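Need residues for this backbone.
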C-alpha cells in the first residue's frame, strides 16, 4: 500500500520539501537540512542565553537556584523568523505533523548526551496545553519532543502533574507586556506530593521572552524540595 501512496504523497523533507525517500522515518529532515540546523551548543554551556532569559530580573545563577530552584537550562536550536527553520516549526505545531517534534527531540537528546545535562533528572514534564487547545490541535508538540528525549535517555515522561488552567491567546501574537499578563497564573500542579524532592526537566518547543516557562516554574514550586532543569527545542535568537 505504501509504494502506491508514495506516488500521490511522496515523503518530503519538512524543511525544504525535497524528496527524501520512503525509507526515511516521517518527520525526519534531509541530511543537508539536518547539518544546517542552527544549533546553540548550549548543552554544557552554563550562563547561556536561554538561562539568562529565564533568570529575568534575578540576573544570576545563584539567585535563580534560590528563587526559582532552576539548576540549568538549554535550547537545541536558535530560532529566527523567515528562515527554513520557521517553516519546520510551523509545520510541527500547526500542520498536523507531530512526528517532527518527536524526531527533533530524539536528535537533540542524542547530541546533548555527550554532556551531563540529563544527569540526575528523575522525570521529564512537557509544558501542557489547555484541553481546549489540545482538542483543536489534536496533540501537544512539547509532549512529542519530551517523548523523543525520554526514549533516548531512558528518563520517564510525566504528563499528569503539570496542568494548564487557562486557554490563553498565543504568545506570538502579543507584545512583551501582553505576554507577561497573558500567562500569569496559567499553570498549576496536581498531587504535588508525588514529586517532592525530585529533579524535573521541563520541556517546551520555543522560548522567546521566557514568560511561559517562568510561570511553569512558579507553579512547580509546589513540588516541595524539587529542583528543575529546562529544555527548549528552540530559543529565539537575540
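Answer:
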Amino acid at each position: 500500500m505504501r509504494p502506491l501512496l508514495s506516488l500521490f504523497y511522496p515523503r518530503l523533507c519538512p524543511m525544504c520539501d525535497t524528496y527524501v525517500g520512503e525509507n526515511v522515518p516521517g518527520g525526519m529532515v534531509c541530511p543537508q537540512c539536518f547539518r544546517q540546523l542552527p544549533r546553540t551548543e548550549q548543552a554544557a554551556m552554563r550562563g547561556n542565553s536561554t538561562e539568562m532569559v529565564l533568570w529575568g530580573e534575578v540576573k544570576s545563577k545563584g539567585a535563580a537556584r534560590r528563587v526559582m530552584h532552576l539548576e540549568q537550562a538549554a535550547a537545541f536550536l536558535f530560532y529566527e523568523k523567515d528562515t527554513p527553520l520557521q517553516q519546520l516549526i510551523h509545520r510541527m505545531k500547526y500542520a498536523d505533523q507531530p512526528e517532527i517534534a518527536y524526531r527533533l527531540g530524539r536528535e537533540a537528546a542524542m547530541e546533548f548526551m555527550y554532556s551531563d545535562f540529563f544527569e540526575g533528572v528523575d522525570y521529564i514534564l512537557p509544558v501542557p496545553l489547555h484541553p481546549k487547545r489540545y482538542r483543536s490541535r489534536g496533540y501537544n508538540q512539547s509532549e512529542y519532543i519530551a517523548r523523543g528525549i525520554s526514549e533516548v535517555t531512558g528518563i520517564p515522561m510525566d504528563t499528569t502533574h503539570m496542568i494548564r488552567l487557562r486557554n490563553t491567546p498565543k504568545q506570538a501574537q502579543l507584545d512583551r507586556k501582553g505576554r507577561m499578563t497573558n500567562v500569569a497564573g496559567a499553570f498549576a500542579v496536581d498531587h504535588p506530593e508525588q514529586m517532592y524532592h525530585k529533579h524535573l526537566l521541563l520541556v517546551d518547543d520555543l522560548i522567546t521572552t521566557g514568560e511561559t516557562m517562568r510561570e511553569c516554574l512558579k507553579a512547580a514550586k509546589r513540588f516541595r524540595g524539587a529542583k528543575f532543569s529546562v529544555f527548549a527545542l528552540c530559543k529565539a535568537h537575540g
